Target: NADPH:quinone reductase
Amino acid sequence: MRAVRLHEHGDADVLGVDEIDRPEPGEDELLLEVAAAGVNPVDTYFRDGSYEPVSLPFTPGVDVAGVVTDLGAEVEDFETGDRVYGTGIGNATEQGAYAEYATIPTDRVVHLPDGADLTEAGGAGVAAVTAWRALIDHADLEPAEYCLVHGGSGGVGHAAVQIANAVSARVITTAAEEYHDDLEALGAETVLDYGRDDLADAVLEASNGGVDVILDHRLDDYLQFDADVATTGARVVGIGENSPDPAFTNDGVARSKDVSYQFMSMFNTPDLRVPLRSVAHLMDVGALSIDVSREYDLEEAADAHRDVMTESFLGKLVLEP
Ligand SMILES: NC(=O)c1ccc[n+]([C@@H]2O[C@H](COP(=O)([O-])OP(=O)(O)OC[C@H]3O[C@@H](n4cnc5c(N)ncnc54)[C@H](OP(=O)(O)O)[C@@H]3O)[C@@H](O)[C@H]2O)c1
Model:
C-alpha cells in the first residue's frame, strides 16, 4: 500500500510516499481502508519532533474515517464493511492515517451513522472532540449562556460554534471578514473581525456585559483579554498558543470575577469513544457539519502540512488516499 512517511524529523519536505506492506490489525484493533484523514496542526508537531517522540519511519495522521476491512481476534463490536471514524492514532505508539490502510485500537473508534459523511468524519476527530471536551465536558456550557469562540473559522473553532449553537448557547466568535456569513450560517449570533482595535468592547456589547464561557486557542494573545470580557464566574478553556509564555498584565481582573481557567489536551480524554459518539450524533442529525475546505492526495501531504500552518481557510483540510 501507499503511505506517507517521514524518515527523519524536519519541515514539511520530509514527507514522502512509500510503498510498504499493509499493516496487520492487533488483537484489539481494526484495519481500515482509509477514506479520509484530517490534517491537524498536531500532525505537524509530530512531524517536526516538537511533540512527543515517535518511532521512525513514521506515518502522521491523528484523525481517520474509513471502512473496516479486517479485525483483530478480540474485536467484538465491529464487522468488516462497517463505516467508522476515530482519532488519537499517529502518535508515539501508533502509526497514523495518511495511508491507504491504517490500524486503530477499538478504544478510539466508533461507528458512523448513515447520515454522516465519511470525508467530513475524517476531519472531525481532533477538531470536534476538542470542541466538545472544552465546551461540554470542561466548561459545562448551558443554554442561553454567552459563549465566545476565538477563531471560529478554524478546525476547532467552526466545530465549537456549531456545538455551542446545538446546546442553544448564544455564540460570539471572531474570524476574518470573509468567513462572517459562513459562521452566521453555522449558528453564530455575533461574528467579529479578530483584528479590530475595539474587540473587547464589541464582545462586551454583544454579550450584554460579559461572556460566560470562552474557548481560547491562542492563550498568548488572549489570556488577559479573556479576563477582561468575562462575566463573574466565567469559565475559560485554553487549548493552545503560539508561544508558550502567555501572561496576565493584570491578573486581579480574573480574580475579581472568580474566572476559572482550564487548560486541556484532547489526548487526555478518558474514553475517546464517548465524545466521538456525541459528535457522530450531531453530524447524523445535521447539527454539526465539518466544512472540508480542501482535499489533498497522499502525494500532496507536504502541501497540506504547510497550508494547515500558514493558509487561511474555513474548517478542515483533509487527505484522501
Ligand atoms: N489542546 C488540544 O487538545 C488541542 C486540540 C486541537 C487543536 N489544538 C490547538 O488549537 C489551535 C487551533 O487548532 P485548529 O486545528 O483549529 O487550527 P486551524 O484550523 O489552523 O485554526 C486556527 C484559526 O485561528 C485563526 N486565527 C489566526 N489568528 C488569529 C487571531 N489573532 N485571533 C483569533 N483567531 C486567529 C485562524 O484564522 P485565519 O487563518 O483566517 O487567520 C484560524 O481560523 C492550534 O494551536 C492547535 O495546536 C489544541
Notes: The chain has a mean pLDDT of 98. The chain has ten helices and 15 strands. The radius of gyration is 20 Å. The chain has two domains: 2-124+290-319, 127-267.
